[in-house]
Every structure is written in C-alpha cells, then in structure tokens.
C-alpha cells in the first residue's frame, strides 16, 4: 500500500474516533446557531505579521463583505493585521483559544462539529476558502459534499503533506507561484496520488497597492540593504546578519536594515551590524523605509513568491535573492537585481551576495536602470485591481455552479 492510501486509511480511522466529538459540536451548533447567513467561510491561521497574512487580508477586501465570515484558528503573535481584516467588512471570529490549545485538544475536535454544523445549515450553498489552515483541512470531511471547498497553497512546505488526505474534498487549489504548482505535481506523481488532482490547480498572481509616487534615486551616501519579514527559520535571517558583518568589513558605508520582529533570530554578536526597525504598521512609514533603501535581500531556504519582492520592485529596489520559488521568474540578473545560485551553503550565499551588493554600490547607473525597470515591471504585473478582478471572477464562477 502506497503512502497516499495509508494516509487515507489513517484519516478514516481518525474520523471514527472523533465522530462523538463532532456530534457533540453539531448539537451545540443547533442550540447556538449563527445569527445570519454567510456567502463565504474563510479559514486562516493568523492575523499577525507575515506575507501570508497580507495575502489573506487583501483577499477578504477583494471578495469579502458583510456576508462573509473569517475564522482565525491559531494564536497570533501580535495584532498587526486584525484591524485591516476588520476594514474588509467581514465578520471575524478568533477561535484559537479552543482550536489551538494542546492541553484541551478535545475542544478542537468539538469545534470541528460546531463549525461544520454552521456551514452545513446555511440555506444557500456557501463557499469555503482555506488559506493554508490546518483546522480548515481537518473539518473538510465533515462538510456536506455539495459545498465548494477551495484552498490556497503558498509554497511546497509541511502543508503539502498535511493536505494530502483531504485532497478529494477540494474543488480547486490556487497558488500565486508556478513553481509551487510544479513542485506539487511532481510530488503527486512520486506518491502515486491520483492524476486527476493535478488538474485542479489554478495560478493567480498576487497583487499589491502600487505607490502613487515614483522613486527618485538620490545620490548614494549610505548604501542601504533591506530585509523585510519575520524571523521564522526558513527566512534564515542569521545569514543576512552575517552578510552585514562581511559587508561592513569590505565597505563601511553600506548599512543593513531589518523591518520586522527579527532581532531574536539574529545572534547577539551580530546585532552591532544590524539596524532593527521592528514591526511597522503605518503604510506611509513602510513606504518611506522602502524608498530609503537600495537593495532588498532574501536568503530564504524556500518561498512561493514573496509579497516583499513586489513591494520592493514597485519602489525601485534591486532584488538580491536565493533561487527560491518564483523569484527567478521575475528577477533576472542585471535587469531586476541578481539571483544567488547557491541555496544550501551559507558561506557561498554570503560571498555571492556580497559581490552583488558591492557591484551595485559602485555602479549608480546600473542601480538607476534596475530601479526604472522594476517600477515598470511592477506596474504591468503586480497591480491590485487585476488581483481583485481575478479572485472576484473565481468566487463568482463557483457560486454560479
């Protein structure tokens, strides 16, 4: 028996065990029903700082409203995007106190019954959208079969395995990364997952709000390299900090800024080479930070297509990145920035990145050409109106089925 069939068997056995908890939840849902009908049920893990959270928030603005509801199922580190989600008009429910408590895990099982009881009792057929949410996968077998379930996958990661036993419940899988789709299709083939699931992918590129003012490249006095993101392991912020040290030794006019709560992910002895800006929530301040920098640095071990690349390119920054996800599809050497060939060896990554940083620092003409090209490219490819239209079409397509 192959791995796929074993996972299906495991899921069926687990469903037998948790059935009493689900029934308990259904009874609770009957006794305490939702106060209104909802067209869309969103399931997201967090509302804290992160690229995935920005995508989820923008999606709710594109297709949400008073007839949609969002469930947050994991405990967020901060409230960074909560107010932005509120502005979408969606009803927000943070159920993480029940679904993200390992000491009271039975509550998670009961809530699978409560939430699916709500969904199944809707008079008009809703759409479920799972934004890479573990709880969203776990409830999928308990949703009535006629209800459309959609999922979004950012990159090939742990969720690529978590979702396998639940593939049959999802009508379509959306991704903003063509490489992510390719990686999953190869994975399906390797695990002998039924070929039909490979046909359920749809590619829709991210969209961002483009800056209204074009960048004016100022004379270079202090050359600034910018890291944007959180301090999660795959981002490998420690490599950027080590690069900052090496760069300082080669040219002490180059500075490294870190936007995001990452200081805890950088070894203490490297803090002196880093300027930590912390989490930023004011769009005007974020825009200012981008426009004061010259280079965006990405040293990730894996990505889909990071929002920060779009944000940086739209403001004229050159991008220096490891060859992850769809970044090489949008960043070409000497045109939009530079792709580091190495992915694993950290010393080689630092050496390559340092070479590109010093080359850009010395060549203001090339830096200006890259800035102009990236602004043009962003305007043609990353606009938020296109993103909104694509997702509105997607939801309209399935609501009319």
Which regions contain 5 or more consecutive residues with pLDDT less than 50?
none
For the terminal residues, how far apart are their CA atoms? 36 Å
Helix content: 40-55%
Averaging pLDDT over every residue, what do you get? 94
Shape designation: elongated
Q: What oligomeric state is this?
A: single chain
Query: What's the total count of β strands?
Result: 13
For the structure shown, list the relevant keywords.
single chain, Rossmann fold, 2 domains, 401 residues, six-stranded parallel beta sheet, 15 helices, seven-stranded parallel beta sheet, elongated, 13 strands, alpha/beta
Helices and strands, with pairings:
Layout: H1 3-31, E1 40-44, H2 51-63, E2 68-72, H3 82-86, E3 91-94, H4 96-99, H5 105-120, E4 127-131, H6 134-139, E5 148-152, H7 159-162, E6 172-175, H8 178-190, E7 201-203, E8 223-228, H9 237-250, E9 254-259, E10 275-278, H10 283-292, E11 295-298, H11 307-314, E12 318-321, H12 327-330, E13 337-339, H13 346-362, H14 364-381, H15 384-399
Parallel strand pairs: 1-2, 1-4, 2-3, 4-5, 5-6, 6-7, 8-9, 8-11, 9-10, 11-12, 12-13
Helix pairs in contact: 1-5, 2-15, 9-13, 11-14
Give a quick rundown of the structure.
By secondary structure, the chain is α/β, with parallel strands linked by helices. The chain has helices at 3-31, 51-63, 82-86, 96-99, 105-120, 134-139, 159-162, 178-190, 237-250, 283-292, 307-314, 327-330, 346-362, 364-381, 384-399; strands at 40-44, 68-72, 91-94, 127-131, 148-152, 172-175, 201-203, 223-228, 254-259, 275-278, 295-298, 318-321, 337-339. The chain is elongated and about 70 Å long.
